[in-house]
Amino acid sequence: DPVRVGVGGAVIAGARVSIDPKRKFATGGYRHMAIHPYPIELVADVPLRDGTVLHVRPIMPEDAELERAFVGGLSEQSRYFPFMPHLPQLTPQMLARFTQVDYDREMALVAIAGDGDTAHFVGVVRYVTNPDQESAEFAVVVGDAWQGRGVGSLLMRELLGCGKARGLQRIEGVVLKQNQGMLRLMDALGFAIENDPDDSEQMRVVRPLDTWPKA
């Protein structure tokens, strides 16, 4: 503020930075480091209800091609979620944004089926911390062929645990009213669900993390 908007674009005419000495940070972790290391402790092989084992881990920059293939294989309906533009494929810049993650401010977890040359994403979930540093916006998407098998529940539970460990107070997001399966999942995970005052086609969902079990 102020931001000048014109035909040719937008220009930030002024900016300032404030430091709050009373702000509390999550204990532990890597607060002494400018860039957090890859969170290897989040890598695990996790079984679904039907016994299928998926490899779950934080996303890496090397995953750009897997991410591109995953998004390219989604139906138009499945592709609709907050962090994804309505494009048939991702640009190189978007791929870099989605796969090169600052693990302190955001988290992206992927569920992988197969290994070696057959490895492919079947689900992705992520949160991005809001400016208040107390909450985060989340999004989750599951490949069409894997929906209804518990992948979304698995990834969301892992993500909520990450948010709890990060010291966040709540995770929030939006869900289309027509997406009844996702709304049932949100209800099962303890999210409060209410109408979105900014969009009559969406529901706002919020999950406080103070009652989420510790890992």
Name a few traits of the molecule.
215 residues; alpha+beta; two-stranded antiparallel ribbon
State the order of secondary-structure elements, H for helix, E for strand: EEEEHHEEEHEHEE
Query: What is the straight-line distance between the termini?
Result: 41 Å
Structure class? alpha+beta
Please give the largest β-sheet: 8 strands, mixed
Oligomer state equals: single chain
What order do the strands of the largest sheet run in, or round the barrel if closed? 3-4-5-6-7-8-10-9
Q: Average pLDDT value?
A: 88
Shape: globular
Helix content: 10-25%
Low-confidence stretches: none
β-strand number: 10
The total of helices stands at: 4
* Radius of gyration over C-alpha positions, nearest whole angstrom: 18 Å
Strand content: 25-35%
Verbal overview:
The chain is of the alpha+beta class and 215 residues long. The protein has 4 helices and 10 strands; from the N terminus they run ββββααβββαβαββ. It has helices at residues 64-72, 92-99, 151-166, 180-188, and strands at residues 3-6, 9-12, 44-47, 53-58, 106-113, 120-129, 135-142, 170-176, 192-195, 202-208. An 8-stranded mixed beta sheet has the order 3-4-5-6-7-8-10-9, with helices on both faces. A hairpin with a 6-residue loop joins strand 9 (192-195) and strand 10. It is globular and about 55 Å long. It starts with a strand and ends in a 7-residue tail after the last strand.
